[in-house]
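Table S5 (text form). Sequence records supplied for joint modeling of the two-component complex.
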Amino acid sequence: MYRSHNCGELRATHINTEVTLSGWVQKSRDKGFIIWVDLRDRYGITQLVFDAERTPKAIMEEAQKLGREFVIQVTGTVIERASKNANIPTGDIEILVTKLSILNSALLPPFTIEDNTDGGEDIRMKYRYLDIRRNPVKNSLIFRHKVTQEVRNYLSEAGFIEVETPYLIKSTPEGARDFVVPSRMNQGQFYALPQSPQTFKQLLMVGGMDKYFQIVKCFRDEDLRADRQPEFTQIDCEMAFVEQEDILNAFEGLTRHLLKEINGVEVNAFPRMLYDDAMRLYGNDKPDIRFGMTFGELNEVAQHKDFGVFNTAELVVGIAVPGGNSYTRKEIDKLIDWVKRPQIGASGMVYCRCNEDGSYKSSVDKFYTQTDLALWAEKTNAKPGDLICVLSGPTHKVRTQLSALRMELAERLGLRKPNEFAPLWVIDFPLLEWDEETQRYHAMHHPFTAPKPDQLHLLATNPGAVKANAYDLVLNGNEIGGGSIRIHDKKTQAMMFDYLGFSETEAKAQFGFLMDAFQYGAPPHGGLAFGLDRLVAILHGKETIRDFIAFPKNNAGRDVMIDAPAPLDSKQLDELSLKLQITQ
Amino acid sequence: MYRSHNCGELRATHINTEVTLSGWVQKSRDKGFIIWVDLRDRYGITQLVFDAERTPKAIMEEAQKLGREFVIQVTGTVIERASKNANIPTGDIEILVTKLSILNSALLPPFTIEDNTDGGEDIRMKYRYLDIRRNPVKNSLIFRHKVTQEVRNYLSEAGFIEVETPYLIKSTPEGARDFVVPSRMNQGQFYALPQSPQTFKQLLMVGGMDKYFQIVKCFRDEDLRADRQPEFTQIDCEMAFVEQEDILNAFEGLTRHLLKEINGVEVNAFPRMLYDDAMRLYGNDKPDIRFGMTFGELNEVAQHKDFGVFNTAELVVGIAVPGGNSYTRKEIDKLIDWVKRPQIGASGMVYCRCNEDGSYKSSVDKFYTQTDLALWAEKTNAKPGDLICVLSGPTHKVRTQLSALRMELAERLGLRKPNEFAPLWVIDFPLLEWDEETQRYHAMHHPFTAPKPDQLHLLATNPGAVKANAYDLVLNGNEIGGGSIRIHDKKTQAMMFDYLGFSETEAKAQFGFLMDAFQYGAPPHGGLAFGLDRLVAILHGKETIRDFIAFPKNNAGRDVMIDAPAPLDSKQLDELSLKLQITQ
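The corresponding structure-token record, covering 1168 residues in total, follows.
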């Protein structure tokens, strides 16, 4: 037996007990006549003491050799500490060591194994197994485990059945790019890794499973933006015989349960916002509603004056920055530079100071009177002491730009408090979105999403206006889940494929099994999927998912620790009848 | 709202309540003036009644149109049944329907959706979503969910943390064949899908996670034997600072918990058997110990007589078939034919009847006296009325053959009772096994398994004799789990790679990150993995895993429902810089 206790559990009540501990040397302080060693394991740190008077000489000498991260086993007596450490739970005691064995030595780690490490991202990823020893990473992984356990227990209690769906499925050109897997037993053919178990969960509904969930890895071969991973985890859910209202209630319940159990936060009924309102008021379909700064549309009050920039813009829109009147001219100029960066892409920014005396001072004073500007303040809810920032341009672009500015300013103003939680349903998403590149409509959610029944007729005349029974769950400015009511009859599904530009043959080849299934008695159904990586990060008060993934990949899709992907044995390629078209 | 209740919950206490139900038409009996419909959902069956006197005419007519598997919604009043059905929980009541709407019609299913269906395996797989509507399949999936929930809750309670390890990893030529995934962002390079998270769980131990588990999909591109799947699920576990004893206790605890919670069976401490003994007594490293029929080795008593076949055999070994003396000559001949089938491969079988009067009658009477045969009976524990079956040949082959015969006879004799559970640890597995094909030793478990420390020196002189700290958990003749104590120092690991024929460069290229990790303070560790598919099947009293997988693949690795794998778009191949070397 390697240990009688772990390094986090000994207390004053254990004094005089003989114990055996195992763990890593966190640090060692050698005063010559006395050596203190902090012994660490997953559960905590316990102080060991070796002292010239009480410890046998041989053990004393062995203790002097201990380096950082050595793995050791000690036996000794729990004694009271002379100077107690109130910062750690084991701070009342230490172990007077009578037996020491070095289980494994350790090279000096390439970065310090401490809460605030000196290691940069790259080196920590290469030695992720050392990074995981650090409390922030270790605790994030334990936190993730707790969340998934809560999710599973809650959903199981609610009658959901976790069903494993296959990973080796079929490639579909629709949507994002698939990772594919060549089949050796079916030469020339390929499996694809699932982007989500979408069709399988719908088939489970056709199969009468009624309430399904699965915590499952999904795969997308996309060019990686920051904080995207080629493999990611979903809490995937589906229910039969439900309307949108049933689904919102079910998963609002789950989310409320998590906030309570994990964060100790009680949240009232989640507000619901129409997609169109979210776009109009926040420029964004996942608004952070922990703070105000909602958009004020200014077309009515800022156009038809002599300011040409506004007059020709599709949308003129502003936000009031609380206390922003205190910004210096230099600070405001920096803000203007910020919105003009290519990542944001605004061509400029108009501003208006709201002075404490009720007067206004704008960057376009020659075009606008005090009365005009008072209307700007009214539309943006600006109060004396605020700063109004105004952008203009094509509606969608300018909304995106102003939304980015709103989030940036809120961040700077400390309005995005990590321990405040403001969940929100965004509902009535458009069914289709126009794709500039291919010059056609794509399914905004996916091709199985049901249009609002009373808007079906608009598909022919004004497809962009058709709304869907589709919804997102938004938490603190992040989409943590999304879903829809599905089409459950073959006729509507065939019509949708047609609108999405699938020929009948293509639709049959790719989704034939689903359309077949719909002929044999498909129930009304719908569902939702949470992005687990992000959900966990946000519940932990963070926004970077990488910290909550044990072995993440970098932005080039590489695992730098195991050095994957890697070239393949030519024998393996031959077995798959594949040939590389590039020279390596 | 589609329903106020489900189809399994209404009882006599609900009489006179107005309810709404949704579900599938299981069957409909139309007597003209009265129609009964069995409405089915996941939760049960409820009888609906439409009758000419009490039901509006329009609804009556609509009800006449209902076919099997139509999806309907009804509203009505719960009334007492005239003739109650004690076989179903809702058998006391029926619903007098006042409102009916057909949510979806259904084509006639290609097989009957009943417990005993008329559908063969192939058609049921093609329409798996219909097969899942059948109770046996549906209940198997729900059972699987219950088992995984119990596993997760038990291990979490015991301090294990579920950590997700990556699916896109690196190919290693050792062991079974990998499925590979071409990388588009790293042209010419490939990921591999994990055969198990082995190295990652070891790295998590190096990372101090202490106790890890994961219920995880694994992938092996092997030629599929019956009841093997290219993707399968493991309960993967690892612990640090443990010896073999700690691991056996931890997972005996889990297994005992499952048997109790899932099957209501209390099992005492699991017996432990040496691998060598299992092979000697059962010819098999996963013996079914629910019944006797242990092997009796007969070399000593059957050789050195005039029977040349036995004299030249490496092993002569027999089993006593309880009551087998009652077999007719014809039945015994059939048994001989059975062992001579190519799947078994015995060249023949000697038998000896144990008569009730204590005399013997063997097929080789001219070589053996009654005294000789009495010794056979003694060695095989044969009693009067039994039949001794004896095979001979090369040790390993003849053990395998006799083991197959033992299992077959036990099956026929009804000794393999599905509801009796006899778990067993088989321990001290050999470290290496000789591979005839490559003419070298392979790791029997995997190359990270620790040899027994006191046998390390044998590696040079008699590698086949070296035992490992490796163990299997066997249940009712099936291996349900297996694991080992791992090597945790770089030196021993390097030595093992050397014995397994890896050059230093190869070892470094494939496992360099693990060997590097071992330099930074790796703790002693070990673990175990359960095959979840099989575990669930056996707990359910079955041995076919396919029934416990929602969407299994066939023996050619195909999903016949979605028709995967499939040819790829040439555009996709181009993006991956791949070319097929065969014409499709």
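Note: The mean pLDDT of chain B is 94.
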